[in-house]
Write a structure and sequence with these properties.
Order of helices and strands: EHEHEHHEHEEHHHHHHHEHEHEHH
Distance between the termini: 44 Å
Strand content: 5-15%
Number of helices: 16
Radius of gyration: 20 Å
CATH class of the largest domain: Alpha Beta
Oligomer: single chain
Helix content: 40-55%
Length: 362
């Protein structure tokens, strides 16, 4: 499964024929050539990069065609500050906005963009966030137990120190696929009575006592840290909302490309595209529609994964999967309940179901 390692940047460079502005960003963008091809960036147009990060995809899109314009979003104020040099280089072709990608419609309206020719979403935490100990994303460096992509809201420490044992266990199991979630949650609740969790090292050490690994295995805290990060930033809910927003913003013939690193994120994208291309077979969360909304068309084989050369240069690309589809002229459909269900914890699904039944009885 993926670990949310989204490595956005530009020092890996795009294909030889693409002219990229100078002063590249310091990280390697995953599946860059494949993403540019999926977007049709060489043909020119207006594009939206929903996860700007270090600017790798945005820089390459700007370099693919001198007529290209990009609206790039990021909820991380550090990413927006770091991208100002690229804004200056873009000479009016790049607009940066500090916001969640689920709010792309508002951002587009405020920036004066209409419909887009291509939208790219690179899901997960960027390598520059992982590399900053003070952000609290990484178990390999000691830092405050934070994990917030934006500088507001509930932190990982808030969840670990105040959430119920059941909620912690559900987060670790459903968002991290951690088999020992209940043992870890029980240990967290026990240990926090004596001393609250404040640092990444504290939590990683506790998990290391419970999750046994063999040489070559991933770090024992990998799944739990991933799960907490997803919960803190509502990453799956953001993804579900962003997929529907992108559907509404794309022109007919426009392309949506999504790079994911975590199996549940990839499943959500797969379910959304399947449903919107007429390939969906319904789900346990929603009845089968008599006439499916075919707002996307899928071409070629997917998911696309990194080749041997890219894996050798960037091992973090090992879990990356690219899925892309082309917008048809069919009007956007109602929200896909199955996609939002995948983004929710079991108790949240049950609460939503009870509320729906309650409204039906009124």
């Amino acid at each position: 499964m993926g670990h949310g390692f989204s490595t956005k940047g530009a020092d890996g460079g795009p294909a030889d024929h693409v002219s990229v502005p100078s002063n590249p960003a310091p990280h390697i963008p995953v599946l860059l050539a494949e993403v540019l091809a999926a977007l049709g960036a060489e043909a020119g147009g207006d594009f939206l990069d929903g996860t700007f990060g270090a600017g790798g995809y945005t820089r390459a899109i700007l370099g693919a065609n001198p007529a290209n314009r990009v609206l790039a979003l990021d909820r991380d104020p550090n990413a927006i500050a770091g991208g100002q040099a690229l804004v200056a280089e873009g000479s009016g072709r790049l607009v940066l906005a500090e916001t969640e990608f689920s709010c792309m419609e508002d951002a587009a309206r405020e920036a004066g963009f209409g419909a887009f020719d291509g939208i790219v979403l690179d899901i997960g935490v960027s390598s520059m966030q992982l590399d900053q100990a003070l952000r609290g994303f990484s178990f390999r460096q000691d830092g405050p137990l934070d994990m917030r992509m934006a500088a507001e809201g509930e932190s990982a420490a808030d969840i670990v120190n105040h959430a119920s044992e059941t909620r912690i266990a559900d987060i670790l199991y459903h968002y991290g696929e951690e088999r020992l979630s209940r043992l870890i949650a029980r240990a967290i609740v026990t240990d926090r009575k004596a001393k609250p969790f404040e640092t990444t090292r504290q939590l990683a050490d506790l998990i290391g006592r419970i999750v046994r690994t063999r040489p070559g295995d991933i770090h024992p805290a990998t799944r739990s840290f991933q799960a907490l990060r997803i919960a803190v930033n509502d990453e799956l809910g953001e993804l579900a909302r962003a997929l529907h927003a992108a559907e509404r913003l794309l022109k007919p013939g426009g392309r949506l490309a999504v790079v994911s690193f975590h199996s549940l994120e990839d499943r959500m994208v797969k379910v959304f595209f399947a449903a919107r291309s007429g390939r969906g077979g319904g789900s346990r969360y929603a009845p089968v529609q008599a006439a499916p909304v075919t707002s996307f068309r899928i071409e070629g084989k997917w998911p696309v994964t990194a080749g041997e050369a890219e894996l050798a240069a960037n091992p973090r690309a090992r879990s990356a999967k690219l899925r892309a589809a082309i917008r048809t002229e069919t009007a956007p459909g109602d929200e896909e309940t199955s996609v939002f269900a995948l983004a929710s914890l079991p108790d949240e699904r049950a609460s939503a179901s009870r509320a729906k039944k309650g409204r039906g009885r009124r």
